[in-house]
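Hi V.,

You were right to ask for the full record rather than a summary. Here it is.
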Amino acid sequence: MSLERIGIVGDIHAETIRLEIALHFLHKKQVDCILCVGDVVDGLGNVDACCELLRENEVLIVRGNHDRWFTERDMRDLPEATQWDDVSATSKSFIKLLPPTRTLETIAGRLLLCHGLGANDMQRLTADDYGYALEVMEELHTLIRNREYQFVVNGHTHRRMVRQFKHLSIINAGTLYYAHNPCIAIADFQANHVQFYDFQEHDLVQSSELEKIT
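Predicted structure:
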């Protein structure tokens, strides 16, 4: 199926309540599917509950760098790090099996879902990157050069963004993490725009940011 409208959830970081609100909101908006860029773990909420919500709602999700660190039992001294023994076997298996990328078809072209950029879950791309910072970003140049994708949905930076590079639109839905202006997004490939929604208490409010995609 070629997708027309998709919901996008950014880095989760165990934000159980915001994840539940976001999924309920996106279902009410009748999106074709819900995508998530990963980083399920490393936060103050309940990772098991987050994994269950993602499974129940059939969210298409990829592995984030924090998920990879968790399964490798690395970087567990980070602030708010999820400890291995605090997560159920079912959730550990769910996180282990998350793919690094997914490819989907939209009515406007092929879409790559990833965490950083392509298979590199640590590659950052922000609206402030110009000049040399872009010149050395080989993952970006590979995506542009290969022309396989018209859209990339990514995360990692916790900063919402829509940015155009020639034929390639890159969409970052930000994060659910409480300290970084939590939000979600809906990408409409028929109307050619991305609408962001901000969390206010236990609700989502349409942001003034409506970004065009081509």
